[in-house]
Amino acid sequence: MNIQIVKDQAAGGRAGFQIFQQALQQGAKVLGLATGSTPVTIYDELVASDLDFSHLTSVNLDEYVGLGADHPESYHYFMQQHLFSHKPFAQSFVPDGMNADAAAETKRYDDVIAQHPVDLQLLGLGQNGHIGFNEPGTDPASTTHKVALTASTIEANARFFDNANDVPRYAYSMGIGSILQAKEILIVAYGAAKADAVAAMIQGPVTPEVPASYLQTHQNVQVILDEAAASQLA
Ligand SMILES: N[C@@H]1[C@@H](O)[C@H](O)[C@@H](COP(=O)(O)O)O[C@@H]1O
């Protein structure tokens, strides 16, 4: 893992932008994208840049089950707001949270990933070590699946909803196995609340209890942390 420690989230946005720019210079055609507060400064840098995505494909990690593209807390809506409305891609894929048929939706999304292998996958990190919505205990070989969110993830994401009862209980997420297929992975974490998960991801054992620890098994991982997130590293 190649670790960069930056001053704050704004500096992390600039560092993340450089990694995107490099991947594009090296011919990346498919970008794996993520939601949450962490990637926002990277998207701001991408939007402010003269990079052109109109010939590229994006594939997002996950989506809440039951939220449509017009729901302000859906990941479709987030991506539209932060990136796609400013920098359209030739095609953008996000799991369809309104497809109630989980078997059909996860199969559809696995086919999308197979047809559009990801060159650079951006990831945030959950406080419990999750990536995408792959909660502790997820099979490391998993492909796209329907996930029951843990209480801690529901609580962490409740800040985006009027109250915790409004947070969806399920999501569709690329699996750990799907994520590890990407040629290059960029994982970003900020803040003291992520420090334990960061240390477990980088220096702990590779274990299903910390989904992000499987990144230790990948050959090309870039990590961007602020000092607070890096504070528990030995
Ligand atoms: N599914 C998302 C993850 O993809 C994200 O990485 C995580 C951390 O979010 P944040 O970046 O807001 O801390 O939250 C959610 O659970």
Describe what you observe in this structure.
InterPro entries: Glc/Gal-6P_isomerase (IPR006148), Glucosamine6P_isomerase (IPR004547), Glucosamine6P_isomerase_CS (IPR018321), NagB/RpiA_transferase-like (IPR037171). It catalyses: alpha-D-glucosamine 6-phosphate + H2O = beta-D-fructose 6-phosphate + NH4(+). One of its GO terms (molecular function) is glucosamine-6-phosphate deaminase activity. Catalyzes the reversible isomerization-deamination of glucosamine 6-phosphate (GlcN6P) to form fructose 6-phosphate (Fru6P) and ammonium ion. Keywords: Carbohydrate metabolism, Hydrolase, Isomerase. This protein has 234 residues and is an alpha/beta fold. It has a single domain (2-188, 201-212), classed as Rossmann fold (3-Layer(aba) Sandwich). It is built from seven helices and ten strands. The protein has helices spanning 9-25, 40-48, 75-84, 102-115, 151-157, 176-180, 195-203; strands at residues 2-6, 30-33, 57-60, 62-64, 91-93, 120-123, 145-148, 170-173, 184-189, 221-226. The strands form two sheets. The chain has a seven-stranded parallel beta sheet, with helices on both faces. Strands 4-8-7 form a three-stranded antiparallel beta sheet, with helices on one face. Helix 2 links the parallel strand 2 and strand 3 (57-60). Helix 1 (9-25) packs across helix 2. The longest helix has 17 residues, at 9-25. It is globular. The structure holds 2-amino-2-deoxy-6-O-phosphono-alpha-D-glucopyranose. Residues 34-38, 61-62, 124-126, 132-133, 153, 157 line the site of 2-amino-2-deoxy-6-O-phosphono-alpha-D-glucopyranose.
